[in-house]
From TrEMBL:
The lineage of its organism: Bacteria, Pseudomonadati, Pseudomonadota, Betaproteobacteria, Burkholderiales. InterPro entries: Methyltransf_12, SAM-dependent_MTases_sf. Signal peptide: none annotated. It holds the Pfam family Methyltransf_12. It comes from the Bacteria. This is Class I SAM-dependent methyltransferase. Coiled coil: none annotated. The keyword Transferase applies. GO terms for molecular function: methyltransferase activity. CDD domains: AdoMet_MTases. Keywords: Methyltransferase, Transferase. GO terms for biological process: methylation. The keyword Signal does not apply. Residues 137-230 form the Methyltransferase type domain.
Amino acid sequence: MQSLRDVFATRHRFSKGLVERAQAAFGPAWSRDFESMLVSLFPGDDRLGAAARGYAAFAFDSMRRQKAFEAEREYPNKTYADAAREVYFNEEHMEREYLPGLLLSHFLWPHHYRQIQFFDTAFLSGLQRAESATFAEVGIGTALFSRRILERTPSARGDGYDISPSSCRYAEQHVAAIGAADRYVVHCQDILETPMTPVPWLVCVEVLEHLEDPVGFLRALRSALQPGGKAFITAAINAAHSDHIYLYRSAAEVEQDLERAGFTIEQSFAATAFAPPAPGVPVPVAAAFVAYAA
């Protein structure tokens, strides 16, 4: 972790102090988590430096878009096809900026790491005690949540689904880095076009805001959950990114869509990214739900 601190301090000054602040806020458990991830995925100064560059670009772009959103109070008009072309199928952007940036943000942005803590206590703990630890993650992105299940549950076996070839490769590399490749299968497919096999445990992290019809997608997730199963589903609220096209303005709106799709909420969580710069200014919120089929 010291190497990342040094890279931020010398090459990406606006990120200076991020590691230290997160370490102070979350303590030894966070340090162990983050160090383990960095060592397994980014061995050597070159790979760590590339990840830091990716994060810096990702974070700067996010800040720029968020400032525009604060003024306009709307996301730019963009279709799913536009976002897919600009982001998901843009391999250079995905591999150099988007994926490493998103991965590091889960540890460096307090609201993201608090969401991980909620995942551990509200969802993963139940999976670990269950007779079946078979799971699927839809929209795997960096595969961080799949990694967390596999690493902490030796009996777990899972499948990951994503439309982005870059995300699929990244997930395979991530799972292989922790020695769990024999317990995880990556499917580069759209579950709306090719339905997935139902599972007792389902994870879907920050996908809804990327879609034109979140409720239709949630209904597909509902169909992919076995009777008695549980899902961990999250959404980004008031968070402007290049591929966010559906604007959720509150956690209540996400909850309503989950219920419309046939889910019943068991637990929920929401955390803001930072204090509003002025009264009434919208700020990013991470909202997460543990739900089962109604």
